[in-house]
Every structure is written in structure tokens, then in C-alpha cells.
Amino acid sequence: AEPGAGRCPACEMAALDPEVQKSFLIELAKQRILSKLHLKEQPNVTQPVSSAGLLTALARLRVRSTNPSITLEMPSRSPKTDVQEYEILSFAEPGPSAPNRTCLHFHFTQDAGRSVQILHANMYVFLAAPGSPGRRLTAKLLLSEPGDANPTLVGRRPLEVKRGGWAAVEVRAAVQSFFSRGGQRLTAELELEGSLEPALLLSNSESHRPFMVATARASPRHRIRRR
Amino acid sequence: AIECNSKSRTCCRKQFFVDFKEIGWEGWIIQPEGYHMNYCTGQCPMHVASMPGLASSFHTAILNLMKANDAHATVSSCCVPTSRRPLSLLYYNQDSNVIKTDIPDMIVDACGCT
Hints:
The complex is a heterodimer of chains A (about 230) and B (about 110).
Chain A: H1 9-14, H2 18-36, H3 51-60, E1 65-66, E2 69-70, E3 84-91, E4 93-98, E5 101-106, E6 114-127, E7 135-144, E8 152-161, E9 165-170, H4 172-181, E10 185-192, H5 198-201, E11 211-220
Chain B: E1 12-14, E2 17-19, E3 29-31, E4 34-36, E5 39-41, H1 58-68, E6 79-92, E7 98-113
Antiparallel strand pairs in B: 1-5, 2-4, 3-6, 6-7
């Protein structure tokens, strides 16, 4: 080492064997990404979304895709460095339906040790054109523990169904309730005035799968320090 | 910024790309296809301290004062990132929701001597 060069971490690594160096860097990259995402290991994805459904949802979020052509546009970063903003896309699982009501289940994960603030949240539902003009659809948003029979109503939104296509319903308060209460499931019950079953209005195609998108800000839970 | 090549000895940026498919991560990371974990390497002898990159910082002013006062024995300089950018990710979390996030300061764009 030349005088004045000092012993830097990067200099240490330069002395390693290339193969050892590569595997060391790959492990470092894995640990770095997992820790920044607050994950202990890579998630086990049991229900991947079809690329048609995902690209349609991303297109709705005005994110241009390059694969085929996805380029990510991020919400503006919060000035506080330990606060991380991110967007959650949750695709609906169909629930039980009745003549005038159908259910859509949405799953979210609680971040242990972090408090989550929901900045925006919308539910997108693709509705076929109703047979006759002017159907009123009401989306009731309920929180329930898995298996409990008494869900809690946390929101009610009307939807005017004139033409077929995507309908957006603002659901920020309902999603915030989920993250504030924890350990529950968020369900949207769609009720339709009139004789047509709401389930018939919903499209079965993968690219029209209902989804919720929420912009969230997570920060470490408030710590109380003893002076 | 100076890119490293096979003969580089002084501080430079070394490119290193981790392909998510190669490490079996393509199932849960949707985009991008890999991570440019570039890093800084090489030596910073005294006469190149603060080159390139930090020339306009107060570090440089202090280092120059020390050099002028011949305080070599107490000063060392290290090759560090001088410019970084976020890594934008689209990935599945534990319950198969899709998350879109932007991890700050994850990709090194340029290196310099402190």
C-alpha cells in the first residue's frame, strides 16, 4: 500500500479471489435489498398475478411498462430519511355472492414495528354496461377478523353505473382503518339496487380483475426514550 | 466519474450487476431484472486526495490545509461514492400483494477520494 493510501474496505476486497469476490458481493446485495424492504427472507409467492391483470393495473396508475417496457415512476420521497413511501397493489379474491350482493376480499400485511400512514387509496372495479340505464351500486367496506361473523363497517361509497368500464372508489379511510387495527381482513361488499346481480356486472377476465391501490408511508413506531 | 478498467490503480467506480434470475429472485421481484450494485475501489494517495468529486467540499479545504502543513502522517483518504441514485422495485410481498417502492441511495453513480 502506498504511503497515505490508508486501509479502506474497498481496498480489502480488491485483494480477494474473483470468484470469492463475486459471491461475497451477491450475498451483500441480497442482504442489502432484504433489509431495506424489512424482509427476513425472500417472500414465498403463492398467488402471482397474471401479467395481463398487473399491466392493466399499472396502466391505471399511469406507470409506463417496458417489460414489455415497464418504467417505474415513484411518488415523491418524503424529506424524512427514515420514512419510506411505497404503493401497494392488492388484487381482489372473489367472496360469497347473493342475489343483490357480491363480496371482494382484499389482503394487506401488517408491518410489525412500523406504523403505516395511508396517503391515498382507491378501489378499481371493471363493470359491464348495465342492461338498463342508471343503476346505483353501493360499495360497503368492512373489516373483519378471519372467521368472525360480525364485520365492522368502515365505509360506504356509491357508484353510478351508466357505462361499462373501470369505476374508481376512494377508500383511503377504510384501508387506514385496516392498518390502524391490525390482524383483520378488508372486504368490499358491492350491493346493487334493482334486480340485476352485481356479480353479473363484474367481468371475469384476468385483465379486469378488481384491485385496490394504496400509497403508504411507513415509519418506525414511535419510540419513547427515558431521559 | 472514473470507471475502473483492468489496469486501474486509483479510485474508480467498479460496475457489478446482480441478475435476479441468476440468484433465483425473479419469482418475487417483477421489475427490474437486476441490481447494479456498483462500488468504489482503488487507492487514494495523498496527491490525489479529494480528486475527483469532492473538490468543492470543506473536506477539501481542510485536507489542503493539512497537506500544506505537511501533516501526511495523520491524514488518509478513501475511495467513496460521491453520487448515488435510488433502486426502483416492483415486487411481491408475503401475501402476494404487489409493492412499488423506491429505495434511496442504492446505486453508485460516481466515486471520489475523500
